[in-house]
Amino acid sequence: MIDWPLVSVIIFLPLVGALIILFIKEDELTSINIKWAALLATLGTFILSLILWLQFDYSNPSYQYEEKFRWFDDFNFFYHVGVDGISLFMILLSTFLTPLCILASWNNIKKRVKEYMLSFLFLETVMIGMFASIDILLFYIFFEAVLIPMYLIIGIWGGNRRIYASFKFFLYTLLGSVLMLIAIIVMYRNTSSMSIEFLQGNYFSYNTQLFLWLAFFASFAVKIPMWPFHTWLPDAHVEAPTAGSVILAGVLLKMGGYGFIRFSLGMLPEATEFFIPLIMTLSIVAIVYTSLVALAQTDIKKLIAYSSVAHMGIVTIGIFLVNQQGLEGAMMQMISHGLVSAALFLCVGVIYDRMHTREIEFYGGLVQRMPLYATVFMIFMLGSVGLPGTSGFIGEFLVIVGAFKFSSYVVIGAAFGIILSAVYMLYLYKRIIFGTITNNKLAGILDINTREKIILIPLAISVILLGIFPNLFLDPMRLSLELIITNYEIANAK
Amino acid sequence: MLNNIYNIFFIPEIFLACSSFVCLLFGLFLKKNAFRQTSNLAVFVLSLTILLVYYDSESNFANYKSLFSHSSFINFFKILALLGSIASIIISKDYFLGIKLKNFEIPVLFLFSTLGMMLMIASNNLMSMYLAIELQSLSLYVVAAIKRDSISSAESGVKYFILGALSSGILLYGFSLIYGFTGSMNFNEISFYLSKYDNLNLGLIFGLVFVMVGLAFKVSAVPFHMWTPDVYEGAPNSITGFFAIVPKIAAVALIYRFCLVPFENFYLEWSQIILFLSIASMFLGAIAAIAQSNIKRLLAYSSIGHIGYILIALVAANDDGIKAASIYMFSYMIMNVAIFAILLSLKVKNEYLINISDLKGLSKSNPIVSLSISIIMLSMAGIPPFIGFFGKFYVFIAAIEQELYVLSVLGVLASVISAFYYLRIIKIMYFDESISEGIINFQISFQSKIILSLSLFVIICFIFYPSLLINISASLTI
Fold it and tell me: Is the pTM for the entire model greater than 0.95?
């Protein structure tokens, strides 16, 4: 094992990069230095997080690489970080996507490059910190701090309605998370502990659990987002710059799913049992409704945003099935969605950079001019649909297998959603890629360049890798998930 | 132990009183730069007073016939008030010189009002409490109206005076009722007398309510807040800064002591009033601030909102509540010092900044200042990792310890509403395209810069070493 504080280094390396950037004076010439500094910091973080994976002990279901320091003298609040099978891939997802985001913003962010890179590096620190926290208050601090850089990214570098979108994003998610703060304090008051490890296994009385569950639900349902709390998402996605959408879809939505697994399942099992029908209903409505809404969109980004809500519906179903297949499926679906939707937003960014519009009407016949683009786009589109061999399939398949143990109605709902997802994605693909070029403005459009290849090809490889060797990802998380399921079943058997 | 007569001068209040007169004479006899020199002297005097408070021992207070009391809570708030006073004198010096308001009386009046506040915090007797409040308020009335040629300043002074006098009258009537029904003016004796009874009689309830109204006026809790936005708006910015930072500290300490010492056994009676004041303040502070275009009015409503949170901790009425109040008050002071240090140095077209919309484009012309403002705003909104979050966090810990779940949920909801207007300031600075650049300039004196950097340092870095403040506030006893 590693005897230096690997997790803390991963958390704070981007922040160190940010501090360095803070002292680079920005002008025309040095903005390239700022970009390189940001890229190096994020790449370094990614490489370190790979060590995390390579050195990971698959046979240990609890936290590894733990670091613990007393922080507040007056109550049991620690700086306590570590990684287990559930958070490992969330951290990897964050560290993998951030350098790609920096690359994706290389040329199209022209104003305030310094603030932009600072926001992204700060965002990476808080994202990783949030997934690595074993102390609830630490988790909360990171969870809320995410809002600050994201608010700025949408608000400063976003589209026309960016101000509305940024406020909606901030206030919506803040409302959810402050209720979680109350729940955290109630938990502390009852147990005098803030450790996630401790609270998973020391349960509250049934009534307390119900209230706590609702408070956590308010926070995570907004974040993931579940229907009907999803309305901030299309606005935020459409207005955010490409890289902002990538992080939003790739990582921030997963914070909700992660929270459900850790807090709702892990700490409030009896209340979870009580609320499962609610979650299932909302998820199925989300899947069917948002799929239909996605079908009617004219803006590519908005369509992908709605498809995110539908995919997250599959995730919530998987999580609240509380069986091995369901949870593994949910985790796989989260990782897959993190890669695929991020990639789709990057693909949209590619044509948006060239044409400055996201209207589906505007495009058509891109395959004539951009064959390579059409190919990678197809891989991601199929990943989103869930074609066997891509990452999307594993998650959806496992969730559906798990759902059979629960109720066939849920299976029907989920399967219907998956069919609809094929409808809107293929329809989208047909409209913008196939056919002949009818719009004269597209005549001179160029295929993807080297920088875009560097961004998209690793994503394409990982989407296929995930589809063909799912065990590479399932093995490390299996025991951690099993632990949660066993605890859950013991708690409910009583 | 006043066997040595000179020791009497080392009692902080007496030292401050004497030094204030010295300052007055000093200013009177100076021909040139009277304002600047007097301000410097005032800062020096206040710093010495802090040392005296810090090394003050209980024995010094032995024979004041228990007009005043002595405890770690009192000392903490005294030091807080003195620190706020020092900071606001330093940050406002250049502003006063800038608007050619060079009366050397201003720092002297600040000293007297600070003296009044120290006495307010320490008072243990209805009479001394009233006199201390009056000493503090009278100085502030004069300061509010000190810009004699400005109608708005005079208006704010008169408004403050009339409403203040009214509230003092109500307060005094409440005192007379309490005295009439308990036969004592001393806090501890009142408490002892009341401990024999299970519930308060009607006269005492009236007395309690009247006193609460008077005190609510002093802390500007809703519905007795009406004067705050107008006085903040009318007074010169630097005086607004003093109003926002210092008197609130003393008034909060006073309302805590009044509720928790003489009426400690009648929690139910006063907590209902405080509960209402708290909820009303949080929501009105949050909602009314949204529509403001004047930054001073906005900060007025923001301070009303903050008072609401501090009163939550008072409703909790436990040790955690006292801890929360001291942490919250500290963070409130630091954040206000920081924001006023910036506001008093920002000029738009050679006029000091008043309208929020004038901040447009600040992020381009002065990125560091706008970053600082953003950090202060996020901290005021209670977003981690800044100090404002921990203030709110401790308040909610105290409230939940007392099982005040509904109040806590209302509190966090109000904090979400208030986040909107704090974010609006960031939005104006960063998101709005500026039409004309370079009309804002930021000139700050070296001393204010130190104050600003220190307070920003505390706001940002509190999270790395919280134990220092928290251990102090955990040890406070009322």
Answer: no
